[in-house]
## 1
Amino acid sequence: MAIVNHGRATDRAELTDQWGTIKRLSRYLLHERKKMIGIGLLILGSTIGSVGGPLLIGFAIDDWIVNQQTGTIWPLLVGLVSLFIGQSVTLWIQQFLMIDVAQNAIFRLRTELFHALQQLPIPFYDKRRHGELMSRVTNDVDQISNTLNSAVIQIVSSVLTLGTITALMIWLSPTLTVITLMIIPLMFLSIKWITKRTGPSFKETQKAVGDLNGYIEETVSGQKLVKAFSQEERVLAEFEEKSSRLKKAAYRAQLFSGAIPKVMNLLNNGSFALIAGVGGYLALTGTQVTVGVIVIFVEYARQFTRPLNDLANQFNTLLSAIAGAERVFAIMDEPKEASKDGAKDVDLTRGKVEFKDISFGYEEGERTIKDISFTANPGDTVAFVGPTGAGKTTVTNLLGRFYEPQEGQIFIDDIPLDKMTLHSTRQAMAFVLQDPFLFEGTIRENIRYGRLQASDEEVIEAAKLANAHRFIKKLPRGYDTVLSQDDSGISQGQRQLLSIARAFIAKPTILILDEATSSIDTITEIYIQEALKRLMVGRTSFVIAHRLNTIRQADQIIVLKDGEMIESGTHTELVRRRGFYADLVEKQTAIS
Ligand SMILES: Nc1ncnc2c1ncn2[C@@H]1O[C@H](COP(=O)(O)OP(=O)(O)OP(=O)(O)O)[C@@H](O)[C@H]1O
């Protein structure tokens, strides 16, 4: 008993959720209230057209055929033709208007979703596969779009048609109405049985699509790695498993939803036979039913099951759109990256940075950084060294406010980070990362990404300072060379030089440099080092160093191990101390 109750409670909670999602989705449509009212009126018009036709035909049969009435039939014919033309025209206009409203609604939904994605914090992206997120922006939104285009009209017009037909049927013959309506409970029972199975299958299908897309995205972008490690077979096997999960879910969803029209057809034919039989009997034995009324009922019975059928079909589409909308809204409702209340825009011109008792973990209860404190004065170069996984990148992630420390406070120019807006912190910084990310676009656009207002002259100036101008000039299209995201047209070293130019143009107060570990040819390496040295002049710089000979001149070297700061000082001081750093230097010298 307890289990049954629990199940019902879950069903009810799910229904409330779905209802909430529908209400939220309809707000996007109701944004264009006037057009929606127009659509409503047009639906009313087309319903009158479809319901009025059989009524006129039935009356005509009784008057002109059964009762042999004489006189002109033209007004009736004109009425019928006008009804049918009016119905077609209103149907066409309502469709046109609905597509317009639906596409506008989808446009807003997609924009809001993309906005949300831009505002979500990095930890959100850490936990999700990028392909799966992309599937929400494309597949789920498409699914919603398809539903809004057609389902809304069908649902409203079906409900209206059902209401009008029922009223007219009761007025014409209560007995035949009861017989016609007998079909409804049967329909509901079969639809309920089917949708109970299709709902979860549609949900499962969309989940499987997202999962598969994520996997495809991952393997396409990591194709080099797949080949390098000869993982093709494993990748194929994993793909097949995911693809087969999708196949099974889609099969189940389609199989059951495809059964709906067939079941409806069967019930429809049964109802037709009953009306004809009972109606015929009533017409022959009594006076309450005429031949015209039987014709009207036969037609209405057909018209009655069609909207029910449509409702059942649309219910499935609606369910999958709701599943999509739930996933889209879930992203929109994720907590956004936001500046703290009362945070102010500040101009950070000096570049003094202080970490005070900072502790941080990526996961609850984990400590990746343990109680770190240091101060970098304006213009200082601070280098982080330590074994892999020691927490060097994490420290710079905290400075960039991609993550929030759980304990302690970070100050820039003596202002705590949470007292200034995220924008002011990041505006003051530029990052030159190990694997420079370049966007699809021209070299000029990629450099200008550092500061969008920069002029063409400033772009060239930055490229010159970054030692990139020389190689750019040699490219056939120069600054207008279009780069694709994984462009192999330019080397890794040249990508680094472009990212240095991008940092130059940003004119940052604070620089964060993650030294490239991949092998870059000696000449480009010299260009990079020279450009970086130039970039660091007059700026507070944090360098994640992999080769110790590049940081000998640093004002402060911080040695991290397992998230702890175990040593700090200048190169000379640390070598003299004969600790962990001195050991590292010795080992690296021995290797080289
Ligand atoms: N986004 C993340 N989510 C969870 N754990 C993470 C994340 N990024 C890093 N870590 C973990 O935090 C620890 C410190 O990583 P971090 O990248 O800061 O080290 P690092 O010193 O920069 O290493 P490397 O020299 O290899 O780049 C590692 O154990 C790493 O696995």
## 2
Amino acid sequence: MLQRPLAGHDEIDLVHTFQDRTGLDRRLEIDKACGKALTVPSISGPRTCVRHIGYARAVDFQTSLFADATAHSAAVLAPERRHLSRGAWVDVQRDWLTDPDDVFTALVERVPWRSERREMYDAVVEVPRLVHTYLAEDPLPHPALARARTDLSEHYLPELGEPFVSAGCCYYRDGRDSVAWHGDTIGRGRTADTMVAIVSVGDPRRLLLRPRGGGTSVAVTMGHGDLVVMGGTCQRTWEHAVPKVAHSGPRLSVQFRPLNVF
Ligand SMILES: O=C(O)CCC(=O)C(=O)O
Ligand SMILES: [Fe+2]
């Protein structure tokens, strides 16, 4: 772990302040010259300071431990399965990514984020999050994500019968950003069993799941570096949402999907 900017690489962009798990104030900085993320003890002053192209708002996230950048990008896949009703299930593996901080900064910096607008009744409203989708042939913004897609494809192949190809990305800038109740039912998820694998970095947010037509909802917290996979009939017999919350720092999610699932 680097404690201070490297000599000669002092042009720093994108500064996040946060408390690590031991309660210490630290800063995460991107060195523009070498592209590395650096963590330094935070000096007193405003908790938040951010500057990056096209988006400037308070950024403050609680991080897990910083991992050694040379380590493997993700732990061995061994998720725990929770069976829901009607053939739906959800797999969870906490702290799957080895260096979620690096993935966080890469996603913030390298994804060509765009805001979407949707027609709703008589008005055109802004979709409350930033989005971008990488298709099968597009290079992903961080090697750990390419590795994650390969590992997920291998692990789930016996059950899924095909690889994960696309990577949908969402940027929840703060607690006001959200996803309303829906199933990923455009394409094959409407009629066939499939899987959607979500890698999450940044502040924890809750993924709520509820049976279509009513029933008790189930909450899965998606934390920094966690993996959550929705599978079986989940997209057509259940719905999911990421509700708004009063306070949250940024969270980014990458959803890996097989061909023709949206
Ligand atoms: O942010 C997430 O993890 C879920 C997003 C989602 O459900 C979707 O984009 O279809
Ligand atoms: Fe979804």
